[in-house]
Fold these 4 entries.
Entry 1:
Amino acid sequence: MSLTDLKGVGPKTEKILNKMKIYESTDLLWYFPRNYDIYEKPIYINQIDNRAIVSIDGIVEKSINTVHANKLTISSTTVRDENGDSIKVSWYNMPFLKSTIKYSMRFIFRGRIKRIGKNIVLEQPAVFTLQKYSEKINNMQPMYPLVKGASNNQICKFVKESLEINRVSDYLDENIRKKYKICNLEDAIKNIHFPENFESLKCARKRLVFDEFFSFIYQMTKLKENEIKIPNRYKINNYNISDNVIENLPYELTKAQKRVLADIRKDMLSENVMQRLVQGDVGSGKTIIAFLAMLDIAGSGLQAGLMVPTEVLAKQHYEDMCKIINDNHLSFTVEYLTGSLTAKQKREIYERIQSGQANLIIGTHAMFQEKVIYDRLALVVIDEQHRFGVAQRAKLMEKGVTPHTIIMSATPIPRTLAIILYGDMDISIIDELPAKRLAIKNCVVTKDYRPNAYRFIEKQIKMGRQAYVICPMVMENDMLEAENVVDYSEKLKENLCGDINVNYLHGKMSAEEKNQILEKFEKNEINVLVSTTVVEVGINVPNATVMMVENAERFSLASLHQLRGRVGRGKYQSYCIFVSSTDNEDKIKRLKILNESNDGFYIASEDLKLRGPGDFFGIRQSGELQFKMADVLADGEILKNAKEAVGEFIASGNEFIDKKFNNDILIY
């Protein structure tokens, strides 16, 4: 059914929905909420703690006062609860409230708490009669990802209508659903949008996570049917060049690095094509292993490619590889291939790749566009979180290319789950950090420590260093009391010395804008970079020595560990400051796990133990397996069940076509 068949969807609204990748009414069913707003019982004013949104049952103490300031109309009053405590309440640009909210009237006021010094204000609250609010208590209102021009109420309305007119058929029979204790798909879709209670939400999420894993593993299984024991066309047994490079490195490889390099060399000499996953914690030295394997390939007259998630990291790797080649007087040609190059530049690079003149190619997903034709591509290395799906792999096969493949991951996935996710890949783990790497010094602090943190950042910048500051949000959000990169940048400019250059970065910027900011940061033209978690992977700035994370309690420990990995990459002592905006002892205790260990596997394990049911839609761990809803660690048991179910499903002669998940599934 067309979107314009829905009530209230005209050409203008249709364009807005298209920006959200919603093109048909059925797409709304799969446009899942990012979170839920839960209406809780009203609390007393003296019970207000670090909650962002509260509901207060109170009596209006005086008539609303309205003033005009900076093009705003500010209406305010005070409200008293039955304990006799009062709180100031204010609204912006809502002067009409003066005629409806009057002295001595009783309402439920639900809004955001704002702290101004020692005082607190209830800002922009919705106002309910006691009866109306009682109908909403414990209701879970879906909160959807939005773009400019779309409202949450609007999406809720469209989703409800889509649920009424569309039917969802279930590809799993009742026996499989009973065996794995999952609900039917239609109920899951209804309850993920409008859950009756928390239990119905849990059931819905479990089913949709199961489906997402099922789709992934089904596609993996089908892909492997065509890839079993691919003959090795490129047997490599000459390591003279890379061995000489190792001798000339300014450091010695760790035992773990040597072991993994030996695994790769053994694979490239075997009868079948190499498919290997190299896991290693942040800073363990995966990249140099990739470089050495690529040099082995180039030394045999073949081509090797390294694909990374960002253009900035691609350029850094390109420059590092060029330096190795120059320092060792090698004659290889290295190409840098990304989407932002001009058409002429790309055309010239394509020619050098096709002719075989280019030995080593480093870039982003642009390396695997249709126009790129390789001469003798013998090795593909995929670094960090990059999406390399079924379509891309199929394109390589269509070109008649069956290269060796190395996937490099900093995500600490347990081996049992990694075997399922990476199918026929062999797994190597770099479980040792370089001996001379200085340990990052960590601290977990409250907001009161901020002035000290700012002075410390200033001191580091005066020494020539740089700093990251991470915020959980891009812009201010009325529903959340958390720092955002836009406002925080201005705050930093006010609190740091005037000659310190502060700028911000977030995922909603265009690729060109992001690259420009990151390049300036890499050149130390930006001293402090305020960012969302977009810098979690794909960034390597050895001169950055401070990582300050605001509202650290809102992130998973695994995500914080990845962020911490952005510093400590050079020769300077580095520091990580985790700022907690809560005084909740359990949350602070959780953050202090980061002080106990730099081991990503240990941190991820402890993180999983401490996660509660409210973490369903929180900020997940980083890593290359970015599912829409599933979390590889938290949903490990569901992953194992989905693996078993796929085997049963295929054995029964069934076929599965997933139109909803497979565009985002990552298959290597």
Entry 2:
Amino acid sequence: MADLITRVYSNFRGVDFRGEEINLVRSPDSLNVWKDYTETESIRTRPEMELLCKFDDTIYGIFPFKAGNTEMLIVHSGTKLYKFVENAMIELFSDVKASKSNSFIYNSVWYFKDGKNYLQYDGTEIKEVVGYVPTTSIARKPAGGGTIYEDVNLLSDYRINTFLADGESTEFVLDSKEIDTDYVPEVTVADAAVADYTVDYAEGKIIFETAPEVPLTDGQDNVKVKFKKTVAGYSEKIKKSTLLQVFDNRVFFSGNEDYPNTIFHCSLNDPTYCSDLDYYSEGLDSAMVKGLVAGNNVLWVFKEPSQANTTVFYHTPTIDSEYGKIYPSTHSSIATGCVGKAINFNDDIIFFSDRGMEGIHGDITTEQAVAHRSSLVDRKLIAEPNYKDMILEEWEGYLFVFIGNKAYLADSRAMFTNENHFEYEWFYWELGKTVTCAKVDKGVLYLGAEDGIYALTDRISAVESYWITPKDKFKYPQKQKTSNKRGCVVEATGDIAVYAKVEDTEFELIGEYKGIIDYFVSRIKRKKFKDIQLKFHSQTRFSLETATLECFVGGYLKR
């Protein structure tokens, strides 16, 4: 035995499920460990799920909201909405859809979407969104004409027309026929409500008994009519949408199965007004929109794969001389489709294809290309049975990809270059519950499950975890090695069991070490081996900083 080689396993990066011939800073098989950068850069056991509130039905959404000085969590459980405030649970609304939901806050009002309802809550009253009533025509003569002023609102069955009375005409023609008969139009003359009229609902006319007088101010409309004109399917365009994204002071909606390749948006600073003209079709095919992401001053739209290979679009705000602010749709040069979700992760625009996590690489408007981000975990990630039903949430610098009870953590602080693009390092967890939704509030990660709400805050309870080193040939794959009988020095804390295996044997227990607060020495005695792996395992909790193992290199391997 001539050469003594010292191996220090440290600066652990994450998992690598591509195989066993991997970098020594990664693990071919690791469970429930991560780097808690707020405390240490050593790998350690993950936090446990701590029950916050038990429910009888599945949790589909958790939404932080502050109304005045009152902070609360609004919870979507089963077919009901609750508000959780000061450890009290209060039912807010029933008859919501039992599926994943979304929300946003605008001007201190909370808005909720579930693919069935579009609700608003100000902290006092929750109700269906009351759509803004547009004035669709102004400066109309009694016989009609005038100027088109505002578009029809998809979220309102009501409209307003204003007229310039001539002092002689008694019939005032609205800009719509076949108006709804279940609503009596509201009419004012010179801002005063009047009742001396009849309605021709079929022709869309208001017929006065006495002709309204001309206005006191020349050219100023003095007759206003509010009427109802329902268009079948209009409100469902927004209510049945399941995706939303706030961008450029507007809310964009999509995910409506009846309009799979269409996105809609509300008017500037008004989530209650969605013009019937403010929509865009993403390509000519009917492939479903799977994700809306705001980033790099554009709105990205990701569609599922299609034969047309038109899957990624982007919308850049543009000023038009006639229509004002518009968002023309531009087809990117990317043909890879989205089968999972999409998100802006620390200004990295990513989506999940049938190959794993993809990122937008290159100039966003001229030379977009797909850069893969998940090579280290693809073998396991895309094999998950519910891969397409993933849940994404960002916490502590990680992007959590929840699939069932599994969690894949992309680490934004640890990246590496793979050919001409960067990729993330990853960790892998298995949780005790199937995650149905996730939300971060004030630094706390809340997880919804089938039986309640959990917070990932328990850093004391026992969680099984382990880290396995790759097969190490100690620089000489062709030669025999024998471990130094002085043992392996491990810098760690907690309760740890150390295992070792050589070649294709099974892991054998070397020793169990309890209550470690600094380091311990494990007597690993193995002779004439080709390669060796170590496993650091805990049934409670542990952290691992370094492990040092020395081996003597001998003669050539023999069969």
Entry 3:
Amino acid sequence: MKAVIYARYSSDNQREESIEGQIRECTAFAEKNGITILRHYIDRAFSAKTDNRPEFQNMIKDSGKHLFDMIIVWKLDRFARNRYDSARYKAALKKNGVKVVSATEVISDGAEGIILESVLEGYAEYYSADLSEKVVRGMTENALKSKYNGGTRPIGYLIDSDQCFQLDPLTAPFVREAFQRYDEGATMTQIRDWLNEQGVKNTRGQKMTYNSVQHLLSNRRYIGEYTYRDIVVPDGIPAIVPQDLFDRVQQKLAKNKKAPARHKAEDDYLLTTKLFCGYCGAYLCGESGTSHTGNVHHYYKCVSVKKKRTECHKKSVRKEWIEDLVVSETMRMVMDDKAIEAIVSMLMDLQDRENVNLPLYEQQLRETDTAIQNLLNAIQQGILTKSTKGRLEELEATKEELETKIACEKLAKPKVSAEFMTFWLHRFRKLDVRQKSHRKMLIDTFINAIFLYDDKMVITFNYKEGTTTITFDDLKTALADQKTGSDLDCSTAPRKSESNRVPAFLFFSVQNGSLNMQVQPLVAKVNREVGGRGRGNLLSLGAEKEE
């Protein structure tokens, strides 16, 4: 029989060493019973009271491939501490021909085994619930006495031998001064840099970050307030910051939160890190400016021109114009059925070339099956020698070994079908290019780099070798022929019926009946969707496959 091992430890009282012990005992059980282990599924720091465990869910999904017959666990409580989850998933596994076996609990296959298994599962759930109640009860008693209950210790405090909070004479003064600096007008970035210069570390022992400072300035423990669940104890711990200073800081935090963000414009530029100057090769960064009429204009500007590094003469370009043009041309390609078919073909070819072991094992298995069949035919015809039996046993062992290797390869690298790839790529056609998140998704998936000149744009793609050049004069002419005017920033993503109106801007060049593409990024993205969320959440659209 072929099996997998599932091991797990909780975050409360177990460590990494327990995983090694579980695997060791499960492996010994498999060897004793002549069972072949294909792989291990391990969840670290996950409770079995819930089924929200990544490797557990992967194991259940992989059982549908019918590559293994058994799941070996150290004890049944490793599989689940919830009777409902246990019954539900065991029923699903049973449909797939897989059963759950405990390596250390002897459970027979008869009627007695059913009762014993139910008792063990019920006791596991009882133990989990009872332990949870005891832990909460103990932590509640600690909270009423304002004692440390575990978790992250705030900067500026020490925990004494009685588990009580005490001021840290080294870091508490920095906490107070951080509040004072913010109250006097310093930004969080300035405070972060100052704290790092002073050698102050965050709660994880690393350098202070923007989020660390934000959390520090809003932490009510610094005014002596102790909280745990619904328990609040004013003046439960020593205060570092006066109440009036803390209140002023909270008011400023709330005010700055509602104010326009200083760096918001940077986040709105979709082509950042992908748009380059065609003359000097530097990035084009996003900038904004206000005209004499009070209108705010956004544009991309060459970094070399901005910092005067070289004598680059690249002109600034309007943000809306360039982004709309890139989105329009990318959507034009997505609407081309032949282009999608070509991408899928290349994806499948690359996927086959990436896994070199599986085709080799499958070929060897076919050859072994043929050899076994020839031997059986020879035996049926009365041709039997001393070496026939030994050769047949050798071939049977080889076949079993190859089947195990093939199952391991399929579990490690699940193969994506051409149908699924086509479905996944077709989801891009339903993107709403008016939404920023959908525009960003389109650009991030297909665009590799854009080189911008004053009279043309050269685009390179994640799935295509070479480049595509778009001449702005030709584009103006094409738009004029369509009676849409020459204002390029009005260019939007085409409708499906318009996908071939401008042949000069098609993204694929056919050479010798094939397409030259660079498809690795798309393979990685498809594999992440398959291995992560599966088919239900593709492109975050909640899409399901249509008939």
Entry 4:
Amino acid sequence: MIDRQTVEKILDAADIVDVVSDYVALKKRGANWVGLCPFHNDRKPSFYVTRTKGFCKCFSCGEGGSPVNFIMKIENMSYPEALRYLAKKYHIEIQEKEITDEERQQQSEQESMFVINEFAMNFFEKQLHESQEGLDIGLSYFRERGFSDESIHNFHLGYSPDKPTALHEAAVKAGYNEELLIKVGLCGKDDRGHWYDKFKGRVIFPIFTKSGKVVAFGGRTLHNHHAKYINSPESAIYHKRKTIYGLAQAKREIAKLDKCFIVEGYADVISMHQAGFKNVIATSGTALTKEHIYTIRNLTNNVTELFDGDEAGIKAAIKGVDMLLKQDLNIKVLVLPSPEDPDSFAQNHSASEITDYINQNEQDFIDFKTDVLLKDCERDPIARAKAIESVLRSVANIPNQITRNVYAQVCVNKFHLSESVIVNQIERYRAQIKEEDWKNEERERKQRELDTKRKAEAATTAVEVSGQGDPLPPPPFDVNIPPASYPQEVPATQPPVPQPAPSFQQQPSAHESALQKCEYEVIQYMVKYGCSFIFEYEQLTVIEWLTKEITDDNHRFTIPLYQKLYKLCQELFSDFTVAFSNFMQSVEEKKHQLYTQEIEQFRSSFEGNVAEIERKEEEAKQSVDAQFENEISEYRQNFIFKHLSSHPDDDVREIVNEICLPKHSLSKIHAEIFSQHMDSQRLLALVSASLFNWKLTIIEIKISQLETELKSATIDRQFEILKKIQELTTYRKELAKLTGERVVNPKNLN
């Protein structure tokens, strides 16, 4: 397990803009960065990244979070894996404590599969460079292919010995799970139950995720085997539809150059990289998929497909064009002279020759498709008409209407047809494409509904078998509130759709809903502003004041997750005092350094009396103090969020990320000024209003319960109930009066 001190170093070092930039092409917009969301099919930039808060968020699908949370989601990693990834990225040495047997059992199977693949990659590399068989066969082959030692190292190429169980024996000796060796596709068993290595006698091409984790392998035989290449099978960590070969090595160059070259195989990528073209990736022999395109589009909109000059290569080029156009990418096609492929072309030409060939022969998709399809069609009107229809259908795939119209005009000039015929045909195809898309979306929606229904049925069965679970903590004022979870958010771009509740779950009453909303508003201020001052003159923070109020009234949050957040905030506040002291020490050093520089610069150029110099020095001091005022305020405000948004508990991270950019309908006073900068006056008004509304709601619930009980109570019990109702009513009036005095009209806060 990673020790806490190391986790703190990782969180401090991780720059959210830097982390997200590995996956998304970001553009500066004001104080934020924006880009296309990597978590859904985003057509307009809706993914915002805020460096000062260390936070990213998609305003369409709602995904995002801290650097840790972002890496967990985009790479499908566990919490420890994401921390290790960031530690490696920022060159932080991980200090781990010995894990217990229980903790070891809790490690995810996926994490174990990545570990086994890492072991296998190291084994193959060692065999390539250190065994005689690897040197004589594997390394000789790579060098014959023209791969340099640097390329062999960068792509972690290896060799699997031509021995039935070399890898299996090494893995078992190292203590790895044999069943997982089967699941990742490294080993297998024959009909007699004997183990064998699937990649034996082959040179190895490791396949990486975007972050550089080994997800699968490709192996090329050097013998007369039936299958020239074999790949790892689909698994919990490897999905061919989502995996792009060479992306880990090419992603930064693609984003930097704003252009991507797509080739077919492993050797094509390596040779192009070696020739100086490091923005090259491959689909590893599989057809281009939507998932591939979404990944590419987050890095660049400019794509050039490189294909062999043979008939198969040309057909593959045509097939992939429409899918790329549909995602609003700028597509060009480059067909290499026969019999060249990208591997041989890169090996046989210099970088300048390759660049010149690309510049001279790169074609727009219409020119390419027209040249290919209209070839030898001049005397066949039917074939010519079909070729033109195919080109127009490609144009119809373009989402942007202006771009579509421009290409329509190109088609008018190229095919010598009237504009009305071209435009009408494109729009007809456009309608067909929309209908096809709608049908596909409906099928996917129904499948999601079916999956949700199955999960609900499974949950119902689980509840019936296991009972109601652990009892909730004692609610305040003996109010009986059913188990609840925090409210679910609805994407901002979609209207809220009422979802029927599962049969095993009761809908909360109006009182319960009001109580949940009040608790949410209280806990959100503790998370967002917990370390900020609510009473500036007393140096009292939001956490300190809320803790005192809640403790004095013996309140508890009825929602377990909120109660957990409350406790976590209190624990973090004890850490904050030490961390803030260290932070202020560094701030004072920076202030002193800046103040000294300004004074020296002023004194060296100013001639005047002592009083004037002293006045200027005082102004400089005030100016320096003002420069760091916002930095200090942001440190206070972001401390709780920074730590909880990277908490190992999934539920904690989710609710904290939601609180940072809430989508719930808050009360009017909170909704109007929630996003404004909070000084102590505003904070006092809002936090106290939320707290008092919570208390009033609890009293209302208690009074309602007592009134219900009164209807069936005995005479003696009725007197007791009426007395309690009177006491609560009196307290409610006093609290309502106090609430009215504390709640400040938002119009008067400016």
